[in-house]
Amino acid sequence: MKIITVFIILTAIFFLLLPILSGSTTTPTSVSATEVGVFIGGITGYWIEVVKVAYGSL
């Protein structure tokens, strides 16, 4: 049970950290709806682009 929890936490960190490190999105400085929306939009856009590139290279 502990291994599954650690795996889920590491996956979530990986999912959020890659777009931030690549510069696709910035971390929100406040909890306003606009900044959180930009953050989520940046993460979503990053992963959509990753999937497009992955399928395009097949």
Q: Any descriptors?
A:
single chain, mainly alpha, 78% helix, flat
Structural account:
- It is a single chain.
- With 58 residues, the protein is mainly α.
- Helices cover 78% and strands 0% of the residues.
- It is flat.
- The model has no long low-confidence stretch (mean pLDDT 92).
Counting DSSP H or I runs of 4 or more residues, the number of helices is: 2
Mean pLDDT: 92
Radius of gyration: 14 Å
Provide the β-strand percentage band: under 5%
User: Can you tell me the residue ranges where pLDDT is under 50 for at least 5 consecutive residues?
Assistant: none
User: How can the largest sheet be summarized?
Assistant: none
Distance between the termini: 36 Å
Report helical residue fraction. Answer: over 70%
For the secondary structure, the number of strands is 0
Structural class label = mainly alpha
Helix-strand sequence: HH
Overall 3D form: flat
